[in-house]
Amino acid sequence: MKNNLIISVLMLGLLTNGWAVFYFTLPFYKELIIIGAFSLLIMAAINERFVFLYAITISLVYGAFLTAISFAQQLSGEIQIRYIYSHLLFTSFHLIYWIMMNLLKNIGYQNSELKQQVKLLQKYRKVTKVLTLTEFKDQAEWLLKSSTRNQEEVYFLKYIVDYPKKKVKQNLQETLEKVALQSIRQKYDLVSSETGSIYLLLKNTSLAGTEVVKERFWEKSHAELNFVDPPFKVEKEQVRDIEHLNQLLGQNL
Fold it and tell me: Does the pTM exceed 0.70?
């Protein structure tokens, strides 16, 4: 609410500033309106580190220009006062816009951070209920430590969804994620995914047990999709520790 009020006041300030330049027909008012319009575009396009520098520089340049004309043409005090008003409005226009841009960017950063925090707090994907990748890694770390203490084997399966059409591929992945959940030992093994890949982490199993899960996945996916050639490839490897798992996930953290 506070930010909305500040933005509204700043926008009103910009509009009032532009109106005053035009209404009082201050010196070079047409040029000021054109330069102001270009400044809106330039300040929005350049890197935020240089926005304030641009605003100050162009204001100083305009001030130097007016000063040079005043001395060169020996203008009267009344005209010089109009020059001062013109420079003040020109400078305030750029500073107000700079403040408003900073505020809007900060709001954007805050929204991005909040979305990221919400994403991190989510444990399951909405549609298929597999673990989010963050939650998968958190639980995997505990699982691997526990397996190391108990001298248990842990295997990692990666299913790569292979289909050229993007929309069909997304639907295929959702179906295969549900199949993956049906193929594992509930509350024992872990399933997660990201675009194009499905990950299974199988606790306290052997190579033969891993093959059982693969066979179960094949049978259930075939029953769901009735394919001739499977729309996925599978990779398998025994996992040593969390660093090894991160490497298998393609995330060298």
Answer: no
